[in-house]
Predict the structure.
Amino acid sequence: MNTLAMHAPVLLVAVPLLGAFAVPLIGKLGRGVRDIFIGLIVAATAALAGLLAAHYFGGAGVPQLYVLGGANGFAIPLPSGLSVPIRILFEVDGMSAFMGLITALVTLTGAYFSFCYWRERSGGNMYYSLLLLLTAGIFGMELTGDMFNFFVFLEITSIAACGLIGFRVWLKKSQEAGFKVMALYTLSGLFVLLAIALLYGQHGALNMAFIASQIGTFGVSIVDKIALGLLLTGLAMKAGAVPMHMWAPDAYGEAPAPTSAILVANSQASLYGLFRVLFTIFGVGASIATNAWILIVLAVLTIFVGVTMALVQNDLKRLIAFGAVSQIGYMLLGVGVGLVRRASILAGGGSLVDSANALDYGFVAMQGGIFHMLNDAACVGLLFLASGAVIRASGTRDLNKMGGLAHHMKWTTIFFVIGAVALAGVPPFNGFASKLLIYQSAFKVSPFLSIIAILSSIMLLAVFVKAFQGAFMGSKTGLPEAGEARPGMLIPMAVLALVVIVFGLFPGFFIDTIVTPAAKALWLGRDAYIGAVLGGG
Amino acid sequence: MSIGSFSFDVTASGQFPYIIAAILVAFGLYALLFKRNLIKMVIGITLIETGVNLFLVMVGYRSGGAAPIYTYANPGQGMVLPTPQALTLTSIVIGLATTALLLSFAIFVHRHYGTLDVRKIKELRG
Amino acid sequence: MNDRGMSVIVRTVTRFVYGLIIVFGFYVIMHGHLTPGGGFQGGAIVASAFALLLVSFGAAGIKGKLNKKLLQSLEEIGALAFLGLAFAGLGTAFFYNLLAHGGGFFGAAVPAGPNPGILNAGGLVPLMNWAVGLKVMTGIASIVIVMLIGARKEETE
């Protein structure tokens, strides 16, 4: 078990990749064998993610390092006496392990939902291949410690995601959505590549910890600032922050229902990349405060515009997609407030460790933002899966044309209500716990932020009431397909609903175990991150 | 001074390749944002990729260096950095996959809508 | 673009040349660890020979002669071979070069610094070059075929 935990970072990427390449061959043996194989691969991936998290959260709490292709020593000493790491490293710290858990949950439920959802259509081999490729890419983005490796996995997820969005080639709108989303993903990837080229030219290495230590020693030069701006633009574009959010409703709306949940994990992974850049690589000095204020402005715009556009939607999936866009704003708000406070603590000469132990409002904001990532993934995933079942049962996506499904689909109705109410932040579900932390800490920066956040939560509840009434209320319909969703579709929804309820009833336990180490890894773990690579050699 | 810092020497001869890379990226952005044909937008994306690849290769240049290959190399000759060349190769491969996917989508859009004009392909609104 | 292909001159020259291009592509793949080249570059050259055939003889001339299922199977074998070679060194680390400096297959010792290139050296790197080259040549060939021939069919759904 110990060797498995040692190899877990790279196996998390290699096992889905192996599955993605092997699915077309095994698919020739028949549909049942293929489904069993994919189920095993996804279960193994989720188990590995759990093992990785248990190893970090239950054990040492120091970043775990994995060197690809070498055993002993990966740093070469240059003639000037400086020693530069030359291999590609995977570095897993608290935030990476946390994101790994989120991705594992969403992929597990999405893949098992797909087994039932795709039953009547053809061309399934390539769909599962793309799904597993997307999974491998998202895990790679979250675990890597090398900037260019991050870019490669970013592009892998872009291509796989767009392949899945445009998968149903017989639908007109999905092709248009696929083109627009691919163009925007490629543009954001090219901005990130330009920034990586600038950082390489300035510092001579691609390793994140090495660049961080160079910036710590020599300060932030103008080339670094340009690179930071480009990285901010590229990664925020891919995460779906306003004003670059126009691709999100097209992407989440046109993808098949189980895939939309995994696309949310994709956006969150690029948000993770943004946090890694801001906190670990560029985390010194007061120059970060300006970027933090940009984050807060983007967050408020995203929250407000997301909810407002969701009010006018008639299409069920686009409505949920706009809701997901506005939740990204909450995560940005929490972490932005934390960044502002962290910069002012550092400028004032305070100690980060003391502020974390004293639950300073900046640290609480970080906890809220990071916890909201998990809650949002679970709730939005549940909503998309339920909407998939609803669309399958009623045959249409237009809210004006469907109705009365509550009589036929009792369980799906309950799951939809749980997901909607939790996302809007009503106690006792998990959305309330994370949003309360964000409201409390944003209030200390400016009351205006809290007011916008609370108002948007209320509007989101109104949006989901409208969706609920359109889809489920009304008299019994005469549609032949309207019946309860099959058990294969109900069980993943039940798993996500269980997560929503349990995390809402015992938030303190989960915050102490999972969220606080992740928040600490970003808040004060910069030196530990650098030391794991450069200290030991 | 850190490793490989950029010099701010503004004489044109040393900076010429960087200026060309910037011009390529500018042309690509113009084509992507202002052209109405889907294929022209794809060409714009390809131009941006080419500009970024050129920039990436130029980062590794050391004056007086030869290609970084050990087979039949002159002993005692300095070489340019090989890492940016590997990065550029990876970027070219990614660009191939991206362009193939974009063109496939363009083919299907043309099959469904009958036109490649962006102004007429507006079924997704709101 | 017409289905009959291009003129007699083009077709005759293509019949001479495409074999040479394929051999050159294989040379580039094989010597990837010594001279510029490697899996992707050599695979793209072989695929361009295939595209040359497709353009000169037209879709009708090629349709009977190629086997799309064989191309897909070769593509999968290439991908699985690459991943299998990466897993081979898992005893030490993922992607560990098992055969380098081992004295056996592809395991000759390499002197540091400039040298006349030794083909037998490099460990797992030439094998991975072959896997990647196989995948790239069949992959790009599949893309070109689907774009040319598949795009002409009407919707079947």
Remarks:
- Chain B touches chain A at residues 2-6, 25, 32, 38, 41, 45, 48-49, 52, 55-56, 59, 83-84, 87, 90-91, 94, 97-98, 101-102, 105-106, 108-109, 112-113, 121, 123-124, 126 (CB under 8 Å).
- Chain B has a mean pLDDT of 85.
- Residues 14-62+79-120 of chain B form a domain with the Helix Hairpins fold (CATH 1.10.287.3510).
